[in-house]
């Protein structure tokens, strides 16, 4: 049986992080991008991470942030994994010498395989929806048929996922993991514990049928 992992991104409150963990989420995402309505300060992030139980992966999301500023965050917040969501090159990502995933925004004219191959040291790639001028978190899904069957790296599927469409997304793409933010919210940055629970249950139900 294939196990599809689940990340709840855009966490801004400890209670939301704990609700995600209680629901069975494998990872939580903390957004260090000031222009996002889901952004957290170093102090907020440190408090959230300190309150988590063990065996939960903490992911820090960065968008074209200077290396020195990322290192400031890392000095204060014990993150397990970095997620680069901007126009960072492979060299930019590798410079931190930390495990990372690279987010790639997918559109019809792109050679997705070539985009993935440009980041040989990424632990995985996160495929999100391309919206001009917006690095992510749009709440819009993309055409999953654009994802090649074999990419050579674990695929984390994001972009407009909800309780209603996540089963179809998993069945079509067969990703390593799914990533949701807006699809389980009461308001931007505020999670709905019931939606989180139902979303994770839907992911696990698909696993059981694969």
Automatic annotation (TrEMBL):
<dbReference type="InterPro" id="IPR011060">
    <property type="entry name" value="RibuloseP-bd_barrel"/>
</dbReference>
<keyword id="KW-0028">Amino-acid biosynthesis</keyword>
<protein>
    <recommendedName>
        <fullName>N-(5'-phosphoribosyl)anthranilate isomerase</fullName>
        <ecNumber>5.3.1.24</ecNumber>
    </recommendedName>
</protein>
<keyword id="KW-0057">Aromatic amino acid biosynthesis</keyword>
<dbReference type="GO" id="GO:0004640">
    <property type="term" value="F:phosphoribosylanthranilate isomerase activity"/>
</dbReference>
<feature type="domain" description="N-(5'phosphoribosyl) anthranilate isomerase (PRAI)">
    <location>
        <begin position="7"/>
        <end position="201"/>
    </location>
</feature>
<dbReference type="InterPro" id="IPR001240">
    <property type="entry name" value="PRAI_dom"/>
</dbReference>
<keyword id="KW-0822">Tryptophan biosynthesis</keyword>
<dbReference type="Pfam" id="PF00697">
    <property type="entry name" value="PRAI"/>
</dbReference>
<comment type="pathway">
    <text>Amino-acid biosynthesis; L-tryptophan biosynthesis; L-tryptophan from chorismate: step 3/5.</text>
</comment>
<keyword id="KW-0413">Isomerase</keyword>
<dbReference type="InterPro" id="IPR013785">
    <property type="entry name" value="Aldolase_TIM"/>
</dbReference>
<dbReference type="InterPro" id="IPR044643">
    <property type="entry name" value="TrpF_fam"/>
</dbReference>
<comment type="similarity">
    <text>Belongs to the TrpF family.</text>
</comment>
